[in-house]
């Protein structure tokens, strides 16, 4: 009997796109069936802190806080390159130093960067889908939009600052912006963990290579919140060749993010991303 492995991801277009090669049966694991759960990213961050899922999408900024219980996966990653979350406000307004802002969660990457850049802002956390309306209603002075909202926000709003620009200033300017990835429970036996990671890598690769087939299927089934053109633009940004496996420059970007969090007191220890991967070379040694 196949084991059931819980795989949690966000309901935004890139996560759904990268997972659904498994859901549609195009890619399967050797000894397990994957059961997917979709929830907003901060709910998934909190769930990972509690150890609820076997495999879970997380904000990269959370990872140093769960490193002892979860290994960092090399696949299904989202980075910004010249783009990313946006700090928005009503058009024509001026923000005070202690402006009230809505963020999508305490452990999100954008929250870490925001808190470093705006230490005097008054922060409230809410579901990412509610942030735009909260700004429009005057419940908050500004908000950081993530996911597809960065492409579709109301005409009454304007961008105060790009989180990309904050990242460039803090990081030195030559690295992509780490946003989200996935992690896997360390208690899973190593040979199974390697298989699950390889399955997920293959799923992201298959989805990426078959985008013209998969994207319309997702739209037809009503699994995506945006129209075809917006989906195409969004996948260009966050589900692309750079999402399949972490590259050297992406590792450097992660290390810089962890360094920034450590220097500003958000992490107890300074870590390097490569030290927390699944040791996939184990299978090669085992085969010899």
Automatic annotation (TrEMBL):
Pathway: Quinol/quinone metabolism; menaquinone biosynthesis. It holds the Pfam family VitK2_biosynth. The keyword Membrane does not apply. InterPro entries: Menaquinone_biosynth (IPR003773), MqnD (IPR030869). The keyword Ligase applies. One of its GO terms (molecular function) is ligase activity. SUPFAM superfamilies: Periplasmic binding protein-like II. It comes from the Bacteria. Its EC number is 4.1.99.29. Keywords: Ligase, Lyase, Menaquinone biosynthesis. The active site is at residue 147. Gene3D superfamilies: Periplasmic binding protein-like II. GO terms for biological process: menaquinone biosynthetic process. It catalyses: cyclic dehypoxanthinylfutalosinate = 1,4-dihydroxy-6-naphthoate + dihydroxyacetone. Transmembrane segments: none annotated. Catalyzes the conversion of cyclic dehypoxanthine futalosine (cyclic DHFL) into 1,4-dihydroxy-6-naphthoate, a step in the biosynthesis of menaquinone (MK, vitamin K2). Belongs to the MqnA/MqnD family. MqnD subfamily. This is 1,4-dihydroxy-6-naphtoate synthase. It comes from Arcobacter arenosus.
């Amino acid at each position: 009997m196949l084991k059931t492995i819980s795989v949690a991801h966000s309901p935004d277009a890139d996560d759904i796109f990268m997972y659904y090669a498994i859901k549609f049966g195009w890619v399967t694991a050797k000894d397990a069936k994957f059961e997917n759960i979709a929830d907003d990213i901060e709910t998934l961050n909190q769930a990972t802190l509690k150890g609820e899922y076997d495999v879970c999408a997380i904000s990269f900024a959370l990872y140093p806080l769960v490193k002892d219980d979860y290994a960092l996966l090399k696949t299904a990653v989202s980075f910004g390159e010249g783009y990313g979350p946006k700090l928005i406000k009503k058009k024509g307004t001026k923000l005070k130093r202690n402006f009230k802002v809505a963020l999508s969660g305490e452990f999100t990457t954008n929250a870490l960067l925001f808190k470093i850049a705006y230490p005097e802002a008054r922060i409230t956390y809410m579901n990412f889908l509610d942030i735009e309306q909260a700004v429009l209603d005057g419940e908050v002075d500004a908000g950081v939009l993530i996911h597809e909202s960065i492409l579709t926000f109301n005409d009454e709003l304007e961008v105060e600052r790009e989180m990309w620009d904050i990242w460039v200033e803090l990081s030195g300017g030559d690295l992509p912006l780490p946003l989200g990835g996935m992690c896997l429970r360390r208690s899973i036996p190593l040979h199974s963990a390697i298989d699950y990671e390889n399955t997920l890598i293959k799923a992201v690769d298959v989805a990426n290579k078959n985008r013209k087939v998969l994207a319309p299927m997702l739209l037809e089934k009503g699994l995506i919140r945006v129209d075809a053109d917006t989906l195409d633009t969004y996948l260009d940004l966050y589900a692309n060749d750079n999402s399949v496996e972490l590259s050297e420059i992406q590792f450097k970007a992660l290390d810089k993010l962890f360094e920034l969090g450590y220097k500003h007191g958000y992490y107890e220890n300074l870590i390097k991303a490569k030290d927390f991967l699944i040791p996939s070379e184990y299978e090669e040694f085992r085969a010899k």
